[in-house]
Design a protein that fits this description.
The complex is a heterodimer of chains A (235) and B (172).
Chain A (H helix, E strand, L loop, with lengths): L6 E4 L2 E4 H21 L10 H19 L2 H27 L2 E3 L2 E4 L6 H30 L9 H37 L4 H42 L1
Antiparallel strand pairs in A: 1-2, 3-4
Chain B lengths: L1 H5 L8 H136 L2 H19 L1
The chains are: A mainly alpha (235), B mainly alpha (172).
């Protein structure tokens, strides 16, 4: 954590090398994990296919509990990929954290607010698009005056609040987790053998807890995604 | 101001990452859909269909089996009935045959008995007749023998004379 970010400019846009590299690695991990799990598909599932189908059932269950039946099929795939990607991204920083020349090269992309807000933006864009597609522009705009017209400013603020909280919640959790991990690591190496044993134990405990947090945050992110989308399409 | 405080960690707002993540996430979705999600959910759907059709088939074949069992049961019942009928028919015909045979035998016996009676009667009559003839012949023979023996001219002269006399007397 900390230090200047490694950035480069391309087409007039600033890119963060850390996020790009970590993101590409996680994309590869996600794709090849799912690819590997779905190779030998049989009518009677065995091994990895069972895990894959359990995962599909799990994210389908999240979608099913929030959305009207007619809309489920359309968003269950998005929820599935989103969940798997965010889950791997959250756990990635617990295992790999590389520093090079005082800057980070590898860490969880979800510990960066730009990345989490990107996903939040994606979700909100999808939700609003779905709202317009489902209710028409008139119906979509009318929803801002519900339950009565005076709620209009509150509803507009709520949309921005949803966008920010969705992205910043996961950023806060993962960023805090990784920050504390590096702090514990710094502490462990600060006074030699005296601190290395308690530091190791603390680090272990915190890593275990972070795995838990990362999983919960992936679940929460996908649940809120389906909530926001279903609120737009069901009203 | 808000943006600066949130992104203090990152030092600068790198919009490039935003574009990068949106584009790559869409690419990931396409790849996963084509290589992993599609085949697996297809198979899950196929399995669901198969299970549903298996349940239907099982219900159908059970119904069929029950129908067949009922049919077998009815057939068994029928064949039992038939067997009983055959046995009782056989018994009945045997009974009538027996009665016929006995009756015929009785009739034959009766006829034989009558025939025998008649034959015996005939024989008796014949024997009686024969005996009568024999007795007559015998008596005639005896008589003729007796007569030959007695009929000597001298001896019979008186008798003949008396006859002749009697004849004469009678004539007169």
């Amino acid at each position: 954590m900390g230090g200047d970010a490694l950035t480069f400019k391309l087409f007039g846009l600033t890119f963060n090398t850390t996020n790009i590299v970590s993101g590409l690695i996680i994309y590869a991990i996600v794709f090849f994990t799912l690819y590997g799990m779905s190779r030998k598909i049989k009518m009677k599932p065995t091994g990895a296919q069972n895990v894959f189908e359990w995962l599909v059932d799990f994210t389908n269950g999240i979608v099913r509990s929030q959305m009207p039946t007619a809309e489920q099929g359309r968003y269950s795939f998005f929820a599935f990929v989103l969940f798997v990607f965010i889950f791997f991204a959250n756990q990635f920083g617990l295992i790999f954290q590389f520093h090079w020349n005082g800057a980070e090269v590898l860490r969880s992309p979800t510990a960066d607010p730009v990345v989490t807000l990107t996903f939040s933006l994606m979700v909100m864009a999808l939700a609003h698009f779905a709202g317009v597609a489902h209710n028409g522009l008139g119906g979509y705009l009318k929803n801002y005056t519900k339950p009565f017209t005076l709620m209009l400013p509150v509803n507009i603020i709520e949309e921005f609040a949803n966008f920010l909280t969705l992205g910043l919640r996961i950023f806060g959790n993962i960023f805090a987790g990784e920050l504390l991990m590096s702090l514990i690591a710094n502490m462990a190496f600060s006074h030699g053998a005296l601190t290395i044993i308690p530091g190791l134990l603390l680090e272990l405990a915190w890593q275990g807890f972070s795995v838990f947090i990362g999983s919960i945050q992936a679940y929460v992110f996908v649940t809120l995604t389906t909530v926001y989308i279903s609120r737009k399409v069901s009203e | 101001m808000f943006v600066n405080s949130v992104l203090a960690e990152s030092n600068s707002l790198y919009i490039g990452d935003l574009v990068f993540y949106i584009v790559t996430f869409i690419i990931l979705m396409l790849l996963v859909k084509h290589f992993a999600w599609g085949p697996v959910t297809d198979m899950m759907k196929k399995r669901a269909d198969k299970i549903a059709s298996d349940i239907d088939n099982a219900a159908r074949s059970r119904e069929h089996a029950e129908k067949m069992a009922a049919k077998r049961q009815a057939e068994l019942q029928n064949s039992r009935q038939e067997a009983a009928d055959i046995v009782s028919n056989a018994k009945k015909s045997a009974e009538t045959q027996r009665a016929q045979i006995v009756e015929a035998a009785q009739n034959d016996a009766q006829a034989l008995k009558q025939q025998a009676q008649q034959d015996a009667d005939q024989a008796r009559r014949d024997a009686l007749n024969g005996a009568k003839d024999d007795v007559a012949n015998l008596s005639i023979e005896i008589a003729s023998k007796l007569i030959q023996k007695e009929l000597k001219a001298d001896d019979q002269k008186e008798l003949i004379d008396s006859y002749i006399e009697g004849l004469v007397n009678h004539e007169s």
